[in-house]
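Structure, all two chains, one model.
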Amino acid sequence: MLALGTLTHVKQMSHSPFEVTIALVVPIVQATLAVYLFRAGQEQHRLIEAAVGAGLMGVWSSVLFGSGGAIQNQRWQGTLEMIMLAPRRPVLVILPITVATGLTGTYSLLATLAWGRILYGIRLEFAHPFAFVVAAVVCIVALGMFGLLLASTFVLMRNANALANTLEYPIWLVSGMLVPITVLPAWTGPIAAVLPTTWGARALREATTGGPVWPAVGVCLGISVLCLVFGSISLTYVERRARAAATLALA
Amino acid sequence: MGNDYAIEADGLRRTYRGRTGWLRPRRTEVEAVRGVSFTVGRGELFGLLGPNGAGKTTTIKMLNTLLLPTSGSARVCGQDVVKQTREVRRRIGYVFGGDRGLYDRLSGLDNLRYFAELYGVAPREQKRRIAELLELVGLTGRERERVEGYSRGMRQRLHIARGLLHSPEVLFLDEPSIGVDPVAARELRRTVSDLAATGTTVLLTTHYMAEADELCDRIAVIADGQIQALGTPAELRHHADGRRIVEVEAYGVPDTAVSALRGLPGVRETAIEERGALQLLTVQSDAHIDVQGDILRELAGIRLGRVNSREPTLEDAYVAIVNAA
């Protein structure tokens, strides 16, 4: 069910000309931004970190707008009612959508790294290549689970896009995808600590620079499991609320 | 209520609550369904007929678990639609009319595979069931094409195949023939009729009288959120007993003339239907009063076509029921 559902949603998303165009353009923009930001800061040796962070930003955007957008699109095309009508737990219906967005986000990470190499000559040298691959997979899974938690809101709200728009930049910043969280105000620390994106970004950075990868990977996985549990409970509650509030359909 | 019924609705009500404005929020309430009760026997083909906004879709969505009733209760195959949601969902199929409800960028086959998995069709049965349904709805050979290239009729047939994947005991059809051409609509009616003949209970909502008349064992006419009449098509026709219908084809009938017709002695209802440049004026009157002469007098000076006097049909009975609501 999960595998076929994920494959179906990946197919549906990857056949959209709009999403294909965005997927082609955004990684170039992100790679450029990251490279110039770090060049301006005289930290050329950290360009690879910048490229990884920028790639992660792309994965987050994909999950956020993918999960929110996919559910909103399903509402527009009348399929949200049809899938929620299935005799399955809501989590099994929605999880393939958010995992699919994480998978399509992988492309964003790879494309950002590739453009960084092609356009700006960034040398793709990772201190722990194997750990980098594992951390990337864990990170994408974590983002998919975080997307699941957010998806419950998208199922309930007809204008979920507004929420998705406001979450994009703060999560980039607070998770330390582009800048280290140590340079951010202290009050952002507790928020960063509970976001799987923070630990995913840290794991990727450590794998790139040679620091301890596995503790960050472990915390990232732990938070993912919590997101899955809370997302599952929340979706069951929200499905009932949506039936009471009549928000599964467009009108 | 016993288990002889596939569907039991008892005093169903549904109020939509909304809020408009941010600075001065104003709460709105719309009572879409106001105490609907009826039962549908197993294997019966039951029609829910009514004008736009009458509460047909809201009723169907409460029965198929997509909406929670504000009050009242309903059971499908003996299972409560609020408390035993998943049990109900296992036993029902839902098909609605129009272009929506399918993954357009995927093929018909991908759509069916996904929904088969979602609706719990056993993996070893999926291939056979999908092939069987594609054959049933006449889409064999077109299943690998993307749905966005399908015609309205093909989409509708795919919808039906999707709704039947898990062999539901009860099938809810919400205006399935809307926007479908006459040939496709006839095929659709034949498919629905065949399903009912094989024991599937069908609850059909429609605007089209001929469709309800041809297919349904019993019909409930719903207007203003309440059931106004319920019976077999023959029983419903009695609502127009004692009436006579005069139909006049005309060009450019002013509103004042229609109002004047309503005031004629013996006239019960008037309706005007635009057919391009032509207008079809239908006047229902008491059968014992001949109003044809009066009608033609009121329409003096207006270009007229064919004038016809006839016995009432189910459609006339429907108009009489809805207008009386």
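Residues 214-245 of chain A form the longest helix (32 residues).
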